[in-house]
Amino acid sequence: MNRNIIAMALCLTPFLSFAEEAKEKSAITSSAELGFLYKTGNTKSADVKAGYDFKYEKDLWRSTLALDLLIKKTDVENDNGEKELETTDQKWTAESKTNYTLSKKTKSYVYGDVYYEDSRFTGFDNQSTISAGWGREWYKTEVASFFADIGPGYKRDVTMATETVPSETSTAFIVQAQALYLRKINDHVDFKQSFTVKYAPKSGESSRYRAETSVTTKLIQTLQLKFSFKVEHNTDVDDGFERTDTQTAVTLVYSF
Predict the structure, then answer these.
(1) Domain ranges of the chain
(2) Cα Dmax for the chain
(3) Among residues 217, 227, 221, which one has the least CA distance to residue 256?
(4) pLDDT digit string (tens) for 184-207?
(5) pTM for this predicted structure
(6) What tens digit of pLDDT does each residue of 7-64 get?
(7) Looking at the domain that runs over 26-255, which CATH code has it been given?
(8) Which residues form the signal peptide (predicted)?
(9) Which residues make Cβ contacts (< 8 Å) with residue 244, sequence separation at least 6?
(10) Which among 237, 249, 250 has a CA at the least distance from the CA of 122?
(11) Distance (Å, whole) CA 231 – CA 119
């Protein structure tokens, strides 16, 4: 009898080891989100917001990739007096950032950041930045953490061409600063607050400021409901465009 028990234990050992390895946290996490609003009646409109987030974190390295898409169609009257859905806002962004930890004791790191934005209704054909610098995880507990970094960078703005004015490209030196606060409110609710400043000291160049607040609630193990509010401000825009844009969204997030 004892021999049978010992033999069974030896057979199960590889499976138990595999189960322990499976419990280890994966270095790669990702999620996709989607939100949709369609309105009918006196006016018609359709809004679609989609996004994808990817994170790799292992040893001294931490890399993230964020993709975001927003499309808005509104009921407008054409030249024939008929109403039809027409794209009135379209924007997509991509940002990639990599941190390398210099010291686990001080939690300081160096980073590289690349950002690209294509927005059809801001007066710009596209805007992009690249920066590198130093940062630190200034605060960390079991439920919260705060990161902040700063460094020099370079921006490139391409204006939208019109019937009378051709497209123009401008480049400038910038100082980029970023801050990120994360907090786990409870087992089902997470809070996130981020700030980004891209300051262009050169006279006549546009500086950009962005803040985003989000609360994510877990519905099931891999599905969450996300509420977010974003504010973006450009210091220098063409006539007919607002300097400040806001975006409020409710999306479903699937983690895998």
Answers:
(1) 26-255
(2) 93
(3) 221
(4) 999 999 999 999 999 999 888 889
(5) 0.83
(6) 444 444 444 444 444 456 788 999 999 998 776 665 667 889 999 999 999 999 999 9
(7) 2.40.160.20
(8) 1-19
(9) 231, 232, 233, 234
(10) 237
(11) 15
